[in-house]
Design a protein that fits this description.
Order of helices and strands: EEHEHEEEEHHHEEHEEEEEEEHHHHHH
Number of helices: 12
Distance between the termini: 61 Å
Oligomer: single chain
Strand content: 15-25%
Number of strands: 16
Length: 394
Amino acid sequence: MTNATAGTNGPNGSKLQYDPERDLGKVPLPLLPDQPERWHNYGAEGKSFHEAAAEILAAAEDDGERVDLGMADLSTWAFGPNPRTGIASLATIPLPGRERHMIPLRDGAFSQLCERVGAPSSYIRKLPGKLQMANLNHGMRSAAGTARTIRMADGEARALLSDRYAPLDDHLVLEVLEHTLSAAGMLGDVTVRSAAVGRTTALRLTIPSERVVVGRDAQVGDIVEVGLDLLNGEVGNRAVSVTPITWILECTNGMRRADREVSARLRHVGDPERLKEAFRDAVPAALAASRGLRKRMEQAVDRLVDDLLEEFDGLRAFGLSAAETRDVGRDVMAQRQIALPDDTDAWGDVLAEVRDINVYDVMNGVTHVAQTRSTERRLGMEETAAKYLYRRTA
């Protein structure tokens, strides 16, 4: 796999000048990027289910034709650079009568390969190419008899998964959700507020007819809608899930309650027909739970925060990092036109003079900061906001 030298276009359009002697000994093998991650906010107008679903499927089409390839035995494959491009690839070991495959690896598939052979991805991806090959090929030879499935797009490996993996892909999940909403007489009632594509697919649906005004103070109220999030990962990164959410019209802040008792999850194993039955039960349950979440938001308006510095620091107990808690603090104070000092040690004196901040304001700060994060982290912070809300309104 290493007997040629060539220059070609690399990941993200960069120009690769591949020298196997230099690159294999000194630098890691380059990987192809995963499907681009995008989060679309549709705002106050929103989109219909069919419009948003079409955008999700169009993004998949742009990423490349989807094909699944079975690997009967991982030990009959090898890891190394493509001889023309230098891109890290999987190739079948030549055997009489067998078709030869050479498949370039995307970043996510490389991580899954490392995981399968018991090698830490964060470490292996930093090694020079020769050491990457030695470690991964040793691990693959040790995995004799292990079957895998390569999920490909445009001829590139986007995932390396168990042969038990059931492909509950976006087109199937969206079709089943459409049928579920239609059978319940809800398809015309829902509006899509957001959609995400990439390694995680997300569809955020609300019911505008169930709007209520949640009063933040005597003069201003937020229009809040209930709804649900549909999430899916086609590349082994997450289950299909239906999760209750609330959504604020003006600031487009979303909040998710992902507790097991209210959020339905369906792993990518077994018969895909399970999806129909799961959705039939999950959709009404999620909407009922989202109404309970909205009720907690109404209660939060009346829960004043006594010690703001302690309240912001306490967000770390719900899963936020120190940097995220600082961002939330600055966001909440910015709503009051108060700029917090760069030195967090000086926050105490400033915050001690602030009055009338309530739990709803802090919750809103978490969900607002979440909009600046990646899709996965955004969803996690929105779940943190719900945990915080439930704890503080208990």
